[in-house]
Design a protein that fits this description.
By secondary structure, this protein is an all-alpha fold. The protein is built from 9 helices and 2 strands; from the N terminus they run ααββααααααα. It is 72% helix and 1% strand. Strands 1-2 form a two-stranded antiparallel ribbon. 31% of the residues are buried.
Length: 286
C-alpha cells in the first residue's frame, strides 16, 4: 500500500493541530481549577468541547470525501465485478480510519448537548477511534517494504499510547497528567506522519529511502525518539507560555474556558496607570 507525501502530511497536520491546541488549553484549564477547586464545568467549557467535536467531525468527513472521490479514488465502490477484485483498498483503509474519528466527533458534540450522554463517552469514542487507527496500520499490507513496516510500527506506538491514555480518562476525567500525555502522543503522531511522508515519498520527487539498508532502521528509531523529545519541548513551551500569560494578564475565566487576549489586559493596565498619574486637580474636575 503506497504512501503519498500529501496524504501523510495532511493526516499529520490534523493530529498536530489538535496537539498544539490541547497543549495550550489543558494547562489553562488546570490553572483555573487550581485557582477554584470547587468550580463546576462551566458553559464555556462545554462550548469548547462541542467546538472540538465539530472540528474533528468536519475534518474526518472531509477526509472521507477526499479519499473516496479523488480522480483515482474508488467512488464508494469496494469490489469490481468486472475484474473480480477489490477496488483501491488503500483509499478504503483511510476511509475506515476517518469514519471512526467522524463518529468520535459526533459523540463529542452530542455528549455536551441537552441529551446528557453518560460522562466519559466522548473519551471512550476517541479511544476506540485511536485503537481502530492503530489496528489498521498494524495489519496493512506492507509486502516486502521492511522500512515502511518499521515506520508504521513506530507510529503505532504513538497511536496506542494515545488510545490507552484516552481510555484511562474515561475513569479519571480532567486528570492533567493523562491529558498532557495524550497531548504529547498527538504531537508525536502528527510530526511522525510528516516524517513518514518525507522518507517514503519525498515531495521533491525521486525514490524514497532504501528499504533494505539496516542503518535506516536504526537512524529512524532514534529519530522517533527525537520527535518525542520535540513534542515534549513544544508541550513545555506552550505550558510555560500559558502560565506566564495567566499570571501577567490575571485571566478571569468565568464562563469562558480559554481567554488569551493579553493585549486587552495590557491596554487596561496602561489606562489604569495613566489614570493614576493624573494630577489631583484633573481628577477633581471630573
Amino acid at each position: 500500500m503506497p504512501t503519498s507525501f500529501l496524504g501523510s502530511a495532511l493526516r499529520g497536520t490534523f493530529f498536530f493541530i489538535f496537539g498544539l491546541w490541547w497543549s495550550v488549553r489543558y494547562p489553562l484549564k488546570y490553572l483555573r481549577r487550581k485557582a477554584d477547586a470547587e468550580s463546576q464545568p462551566s458553559y464555556g467549557v462545554r462550548r469548547v468541547e462541542v467546538f472540538e467535536g465539530a472540528v474533528k467531525a468536519f475534518f474526518a468527513l472531509a477526509g472521507i470525501l477526499v479519499e473516496q472521490f479523488v480522480p483515482a479514488g474508488p467512488h464508494l465502490q469496494l469490489y469490481s465485478p468486472k475484474t473480480h477484485s477489490w477496488m483501491d483498498l488503500t483509499h478504503w483503509h483511510y476511509t475506515t480510519m476517518y469514519l471512526f474519528f467522524l463518529l468520535s466527533g459526533i459523540v463529542d458534540v452530542v455528549s455536551h448537548s441537552p441529551l446528557k450522554l453518560p460522562l466519559g463517552l466522548d473519551r471512550l469514542s476517541l479511544s476506540v477511534a485511536l485503537f481502530i487507527e492503530g489496528l489498521l496500520f498494524c495489519f496493512r499490507d506492507y509486502s516486502d517494504a521492511g522500512l515502511d513496516h518499521h515506520l508504521h510500527s513506530l507510529l503505532a506506538v504513538a497511536i496506542f499510547a494515545g488510545a490507552l491514555c484516552a481510555l484511562l480518562e474515561v475513569f479519571h476525567r480532567d486528570h492533567i497528567v493523562l491529558e498532557t500525555f495524550r497531548t504529547s502522543s498527538f504531537l508525536l503522531q502528527g510530526s511522525w506522519l510528516w516524517q513518514i511522508g518525507f522518507v517514503l515519498s519525498p515531495p521533491w520527487g525521486g525514490p524514497g529511502w532504501d528499504q533494505t539498508d539496516r542503518g535506516n532502521f536504526t537512524f529512524l528509531t532514534m529519530c522517533f525518539c527525537w520527535h518525542y523529545a520535540g513534542a515534549l519541548a513544544v508541550l513545555a513551551a506552550n505550558s510555560a507560555a500559558s502560565h506566564c500569560c495567566n499570571e501577567s494578564c490575571q485571566l478571569k475565566f468565568g464562563d469562558i474556558d480559554v481567554e488569551l487576549d493579553c493585549s486587552m489586559c495590557i491596554r487596561k493596565g496602561n489606562k489604569s496607570s495613566s489614570g493614576a498619574l493624573l494630577p489631583e486637580g484633573a481628577s477633581d474636575d471630573k
